[in-house]
Every structure is written in C-alpha cells, then in structure tokens.
Amino acid sequence: MPTIVVDVMPKAELLDPQGKAIAAALARTGRGAFDVRQGKRFELTTETQVTDELLASVREIAEEVLSNGVIEDVVGVHVVEDSPVGIVEVA
Amino acid sequence: MRIGVITFPGSLDDRDAQRAVRAAGAEAVALWHGEHDLNGVDALVLPGGFSYGDYLRCGAIASLSPIMREVVDAANKGMPVLGICNGFQMLAEARLLPGGLIRNDHGAFIRRDQKLRVENTDTAWTNGFAQGQEIVIPLKNGEGEYVASAETIERLEGEGLVAFRYLEVNPNGSLNDIAGVRNERGNVVGLMPHPEHATEPGFGPDTRAAMRSGVDGLTFFTSAIAALAAAA
Q1: Domain extent listing, chain B
Q2: pLDDT for A82
Q3: Which residues of A lie closer than 8 Å to B, measured between beta carbons?
Q4: What percent of chain B has pLDDT over 70?
Q5: Is B173 within 8 Å of A15 when comparing Cβ atoms?
Q6: Complex ipTM, two decimals?
Q7: How far apart are CA A73 and CA B73, in angstroms?
Q8: B11-48 CB burial, b ≥16 within 10 A, e <16
Q9: Range of the domain at A51
Q10: Where are the alpha helices (DSSP H) in A1-91?
Q11: Cβ B148–A70 below 8 Å, yes or no?
Q12: CATH number, domain at A22?
C-alpha cells in the first residue's frame, strides 16, 4: 500500500528547545558537537492509487492540519512504496 | 448573563473558569466540545488544560472540534470569547488570534504568580482595568512562548493588539514579552496566564495585604459582563 510521507520542521528562525536539549545531551555524552533541530514525520497510508489529485489534497492537509504555518514549515511531501528492496521513494 | 465554558477532552480548568464566571456574577454554562450547540450563551471561555494530550500541536486537535465551527462563527459575529492557556493555543490554531505558541525557550514547565501589564483596555475582557494597570495572576505552562512573524509583531504593536505583557520576568521567551493578544474587533482575547485562578480570596496569588488574597483575575469576567450589558 502506498504511503505518503509528510515532513514538518519548526521554522528555521525560531528557537527549537527540544533540538537544543538533544544537542546538549550529545555534547554531554561526548558524541560530538552538533546543531540539532527536531521535526515531525507523518505517514499517510492509503489503499487507493496515489494520483496528482490525492497528492494535492495531502499537500493541503499538510499545510492546514499537520503543520501550523505560523511556527512550522512543511519541508517535504513524498510517496514511498513497499518493494522487495525496502522503502523506495517514487515521487 | 450566561457565559459558556467549553470542556474539551483534557481540559483541566473548566470548573475553575465556571467558578470565576459565577464569582463575577454571571451564570456559568457548561458546554461540550462534541456538540454543535452554544446553548444560547452570551460569551465564551475556552479554558486551560492539555486537550488531546497536546498531540500534533497544543490546541491543534481541539481547534478542529465540532463546536469550534460555532465558536468561530460567534466570534466573527462579535461574541466575547476568552482563551486561557490551552484555550489561547486553540484560538491561535483556529486563526481567531494572530501568532502561535511554542515550547518555552528554556524547555521547562513553569508555574509562578506572574506580574502583567494591561496594555489594552478596549476589549470585552479588559474594559474594567485601567490602561497600564499592573496585575498578578498565576501562570503555568510548558508551551507558552508567543511567536509570530516580524510583520505580525509590528502590526500588533502598531495597532494596539497586544493585550497583556509580562513584567519583570519573561517566563517563556515570548517575543516582545507578549502574554496575551486581542483581535481587531476586541471581542476575542487570549492569554497564557490564568485569570480564573485569581478570582476568590483565599485561592489567588499572595498580595502585600494578605496571603492568597489576589483577585486581579475577576476583572476579566466582570469586564465581559459590563461589555454585554453595554451592548444590550
């Protein structure tokens, strides 16, 4: 069954306290110095075919429900499908 | 006067908000998020809590509740609507108020008696205050950092839409120390601190006069009653 993946990140200009806490823990445990930002991944699985129309409607859902444009950005909407070699990005 | 308090799954302060409404002299009407009925109330309070466990984003799923269609409709027609804490987050998610709320900049939950300045008294919920009046009411949240785009902040400041500002301590990193905002019409107000917890002597913040005697929050509710009386 095709799955549409939506990735959402906090806006770049906003402080991301969760990412900061993770970065501090990494530094504390000696795993290196990184800037970390934490986002969200949504997987929308459907039994129907992924048409342009469906993708357009998922993009709308991503903008209007899965993210809040005041504080977040939708950074990716793509389709993955189960295949013998694992997850393949098809669009 | 009948003021409705909407209970969502995960609301915590609905009973306190009902008490505050009664303390101010109005009838409190319990409303349920799953209905499409405002039961003929004259004003609305969206209370604090952790609706839907803050899943997705604070207030986001509650802002899609059945009753929110009627809330948005009533707000657009001028009904006084107050959003407190999680209720403020819902109003922001419903786009009835500008801006958004994100996790406190220091990452921790905070609870304190918070001093605020009333920045705008031309609203249904603040008309009983003096311009610039300093008040103390409890604050308790994990995601109370008010943010908005630079243009929005400029517009809020320019048009007097900042309703309350944190004084002495900015408890969560909110831009411009903004604690609460109003809409253009002044009928919709949202803030992170909790006026409903400062409406009865014995249960409010400490004051110089006596412990737990602070009742600065009562004026929110008497303001709404006055606004409704003036409109009648």
Answers
A1: 2-231
A2: 62
A3: 10, 14-15, 17-18, 20-21, 65-66, 68, 70-72
A4: 100
A5: yes
A6: 0.86
A7: 28
A8: bbbbebbbbbbebbebebbebebeeeebeebbbbbbbb
A9: 3-89
A10: 17-28, 52-61
A11: yes
A12: 3.30.1280.10
* Residue A15 confidence (pLDDT): 84
- Look at the alpha carbons of B88, B90, B6, B141 in this order and tell me if their dihedral is positive or negative: negative
Work out the average pLDDT over B50-75.
97
> Which residue type occupies B141?
N
Residue B89 has pLDDT above 80, yes or no: yes
**Most B CBs within 10 Å: which of A11, A22, A70, A74, as the mutation test of the B interface?**
A70
Which residues in A lie closer than 8 A to residue B173 (C-beta atoms)? 15
Task: Give the pair of three-digit tokens for residue B74.
Answer: 């009533």
Looking at the 3D structure of chain A, how many domains does it have? 1
Please measure the distance between the N-terminal and C-terminal CA atoms of chain B and give it in whole angstroms. Answer: 10
| In CATH, B2-231 is 3.40.50.880 | yes
Q: What is the mean pLDDT of chain B?
A: 97
Instruction: Summarize pLDDT for A1-40 with one digit per residue, the tens.
Output: 899 999 999 999 888 989 999 999 999 999 999 999 999 9
Contacts of A37-40 spanning 24+ positions with Cβ under 8 A: A37/A9, A37/A10, A38/A10, A39/A7, A39/A8, A39/A9, A39/A10, A39/A75, A40/A7, A40/A8, A40/A9, A40/A66
Q: Could you tell me if B10 and B50 are in contact, meaning their C-beta atoms sit under 8 angstroms apart?
A: yes
Does B149 contact A at CB distance below 8 Å?
Answer: yes
End-to-end, the C-alpha distance of chain A in Å comes to 15
